[in-house]
Design brief:
heterodimer; A: mainly alpha; Arc Repressor Mutant, subunit A; 3 domains; two-stranded antiparallel ribbon; 65% helix; 7% strand; rod-shaped; B: mainly alpha; 2 domains; three-stranded antiparallel sheet; 9 helices; 52% helix
Chain lengths: 405, 193
C-alpha cells in the first residue's frame, strides 16, 4: 500500500534516506541486521519510519531489507541482474531445497524464520533474475537480427543467445517442478506467512510472463537460424544448378524439365491478353454513345496527327501545268482492222490517229499489234516492201503481210 | 453464399498479369489486397470463384499468385525463362556472399553498393557481363545493366523501392517463390555430392 500523499513526498523521503537505502541495496540481496544499522549511527525512529511507509520490511527476527517492489524497481532500473547459467541454477535450486529441509527439521520458531527468509529471498530473486535475463536476451536478439549485417556473425551471436535461452529454460522447468511438489504446496499453505504467499504468487506471474517471452525469443532465434540454414543449402543448390546449366547438362541430370513442365504459375506463362467486343446494349446507352464519340474524335485527331507528321508537299506540285498523256486504243484499231481487207502494215500507216504518230511509232505499233493479237489475225508468209521517200531512215521497209481473219 | 470482396476485380487484374501479392509490400494498395485475401474465409471464397474461370489462387509463405493449366505449352520458352532467373539469382547470391549478407525476403540493398562491389570483385563483374546475353539487360554501362536487372525484379513484383532518397530496395515475400522453385529441382544423386 502506498502510504504517501504525493509522489514528491515519497521521493523526498527516498532522497533523505538515500544512504541507508544504498547500503541495503548494495548488500546484494542479503538482508541487513537491524542492530548493524544502528551501529552505522542510524536512529531507530528513522528506520521505523521507513518500515511504516513500506520502504523497508522486517524479515525474520531482526533483519531489515528493502521492500520487494522497491528492490524490483531498483534492480530493473539499474539493470542489476545475475546471468543465469548452469552454476546459478544448480546453486539456487540446491539452496532452496536445503533451506526447506532445514526449515522442516528445525523446531525453534526463530531459527525456522531464518530459513524461511532465505527461501523467500531465493524465490523472489529467481523470478526477478529469470525476467531480467529473458528481457536482456530478447532485446539483444532483436537488436542482432535488426542491425547485424554480417550474417555469419549474426549466426554466431544468435547461437550464443540460444545457449543462454536453453539455460534459462532449465531453471524455469526446475523451479516449476519444485513448486508443483505436494510438500511444497503444503509448506506454502501452512507457513502462515503472507509475504511468502505474495512472493510465490508473484513468481508464478513472472514465470508466466517469462514463458511467453521465452517462446517469442525461441521463435525468433529458430526462424532466423533455420533461414540461415535454408539459405546456405539454397546457395549450394544454385551454384550446382548453374554449373550444370553452363555444362549444358542440367536437363539431362536433373528433373528440371519435369518441374518446369508441371509449373503452371502465370509467372512462367506468356502474358494473357483479353479482348472483348463491347455489348450492343451498352453502346446504345448514353455512356456508350459518349464512348463512341470519344473514340471517333480520337481517331480523327490521330489522322490529323499523321498528316502533320509528314513532310509538307513541295510547292512545285501545286502549279497548274498539266501533263497530258495520250494513249492509243488498241481494241478500237483491232475492230477497224478486222472490218476491212487491207494488210495490217498499210492499214496502220494510213490509219487516222487522234494524235501525232511519226512513222517509227507506227512501225512499233505494227509489231506490238502482231504480237498482241496473233490469234485474231492472219499472218501470211508473204513479204512486201514499203518505200517512203519522205523519210531517210525508214525509206525502204520489208514487212510481213498480215491480213484480217 | 457470402459476398465476394469488392476488390475482387483488382485482385484479378493484378494476379492475371503473372504478378505476386506480398504481405510485406510497402505499397499500400498491394498490402490491402493481401489483407483482403487473408481476411476470414476470403481465400477459400476467392479460390472457388477464380477456379470457375480457370485460375487457381495459390498461397505461398506470405504471398499469393495465380496458376493456370496451360492449353498449349511452350516448353523451350519456359526453360529459357527459368535459365534467366537462375542467372539472376546466382548474381545476387554471389553479391550477397561477397558482402556477407543473405539475399532473401526482407533484405534491403542498393544498386550503388552492387556497382561498387562489381568494380572490385572480378567474378561478380563477370557474372554481370554474362547477363548481357539477355536482350533486356544488354546495356553498355554496368550501372545501366544493374538498373535494368533491378527494374525487371520490380516489374515481376519480387522487390520494391523502399527508400527513393537512398535508392534502397527491399526483397519481398514473393522472392521465396523463386527460391522454392529452384530448391524443388532434384539433381541426380551422383552429381549432387
Amino acid at each position: 500500500m502506498f502510504l504517501f500523499n504525493k509522489i514528491s513526498d515519497f521521493i523526498a523521503l527516498l532522497n533523505k534516506e538515500r544512504k541507508l537505502i544504498d547500503i541495503i541495496f548494495s548488500t546484494q540481496k542479503k538482508a541487513v541486521r537491524y542492530d548493524d544499522l544502528l551501529n552505522f549511527d542510524y536512529e531507530a525512529h528513522r528506520i521505523e519510519e521507513l518500515i511504516e511507509k513500506n520502504i523497508l520490511i522486517k524479515s525474520g527476527r531482526d533483519n531489515i531489507e528493502l521492500s520487494s517492489s522497491l528492490r524490483d524497481f531498483l534492480d530493473k532500473f539499474t539493470d542489476n541482474y545475475k546471468e543465469i547459467n548452469t552454476e546459478y541454477t544448480e546453486w539456487i535450486i540446491r539452496d532452496i531445497r536445503e533451506n526447506f529441509d532445514y526449515y522442516e527439521k528445525e523446531n525453534k520458531y526463530e531459527e525456522k524464520q531464518i530459513y524461511l527468509n532465505k527461501i523467500k529471498r531465493n524465490l523472489r530473486d529467481i523470478g526477478q533474475d529469470i525476467l531480467q535475463n529473458i528481457n536482456n536476451i530478447r532485446d539483444n536478439v532483436e537488436n542482432v537480427i535488426a542491425t547485424e549485417q554480417n550474417y555469419k556473425l549474426k549466426k554466431i551471436k544468435l547461437e550464443n543467445y540460444d545457449k543462454r535461452r536453453k539455460k534459462i529454460n532449465v531453471l524455469m522447468n526446475d523451479i516449476t517442478e519444485l513448486l508443483k511438489k505436494d510438500n511444497w504446496k503444503f509448506f506454502i499453505k501452512t507457513s502462515g506467512d503472507n509475504d511468502l504467499l505474495q512472493i510465490v504468487a508473484n513468481l508464478h506471474k513472472k514465470l508466466s510472463v517469462a514463458h511467453k517471452n521465452w517462446i517469442d525469443i525461441t521463435q525468433k532465434i529458430i526462424v532466423y537460424l533455420n533461414q540461415v540454414k535454408l539459405q546456405t543449402e539454397l546457395t549450394k543448390k544454385i551454384i550446382k544448378l548453374k554449373e550444370l546449366k553452363n555444362e549444358l547438362i542440367l536437363r539431362t541430370t536433373s528433373n528440371f524439365e519435369t518441374i518446369i513442365q508441371n509449373e503452371t504459375s502465370l509467372f512462367f506463362q506468356q502474358d494473357l491478353r483479353f479482348s472483348t467486343k463491347p455489348s450492343l446494349a451498352f453502346l446504345e446507352t448514353e455512356n456508350g454513345i459518349e464512348l463512341i464519340e470519344n473514340i471517333n474524335s480520337k481517331k480523327k485527331r490521330k489522322l490529323l496527327n499523321i498528316k502533320s507528321d509528314e513532310t509538307p508537299i513541295e510547292n512545285e506540285f501545286f502549279n497548274e501545268n498539266t501533263e497530258e498523256k495520250q494513249r492509243i486504243n488498241m481494241e478500237k484499231i483491232k475492230l477497224s482492222f478486222n472490218s476491212q481487207s487491207e494488210n495490217l502494215f498499210d492499214f496502220l500507216i494510213d490509219y487516222k490517229y487522234n494524235m501525232n504518230m511519226p512513222i517509227n511509232k507506227r512501225i512499233t505499233l505494227y509489231c506490238q499489234f502482231a504480237s498482241q493479237y496473233s490469234d485474231d489475225i492472219n499472218i501470211t508468209e508473204k513479204y512486201n516492201i514499203y518505200n517512203n521517200t519522205n523519210n531517210e531512215e525508214f525509206n525502204t521497209i520489208e514487212y510481213a503481210v498480215i491480213l484480217p481473219k | 453464399m457470402p459476398a465476394l470482396p469488392s476488390v475482387t476485380i483488382d485482385i484479378f487484374d493484378f494476379l492475371s498479369k503473372g504478378n505476386f501479392i506480398s504481405e510485406d509490400s510497402t505499397n499500400d494498395e498491394t498490402k490491402d489486397l493481401f489483407r483482403v485475401i487473408d481476411r476470414n474465409d476470403n481465400f477459400e471464397l476467392l479460390r472457388d470463384y477464380f477456379l470457375n474461370i480457370g485460375f487457381i489462387l495459390e498461397k505461398g509463405a506470405g504471398y499469393y499468385y495465380f496458376s493456370r493449366k496451360e492449353k498449349k505449352q511452350n516448353l523451350e520458352r519456359k526453360i529459357e525463362q527459368a535459365y534467366k532467373w537462375l542467372d539472376i539469382l546466382d548474381f545476387f547470391r554471389y553479391y550477397a556472399s561477397a558482402v556477407k549478407i543473405i539475399f532473401s525476403q526482407g533484405t534491403i540493398f542498393s544498386p550503388t553498393k552492387i556497382l561498387l562491389q562489381c568494380r572490385t570483385n572480378e567474378e561478380l563483374a563477370n557474372k554481370l557481363k554474362k547477363l548481357k546475353q539477355y536482350h533486356e539487360f544488354n546495356k553498355e554501362k554496368p550501372s545501366e545493366q544493374i538498373d535494368k536487372i533491378i527494374e525487371h525484379l520490380v516489374n515481376e513484383t519480387f522487390i520494391e523501392l523502399q527508400n527513393p532518397y537512398s535508392e534502397e530496395y527491399k526483397v519481398l515475400a514473393a522472392f521465396s517463390y523463386l527460391e522454392k522453385f529452384f530448391n524443388s529441382i532434384n539433381i541426380s544423386d551422383k552429381l549432387s555430392e
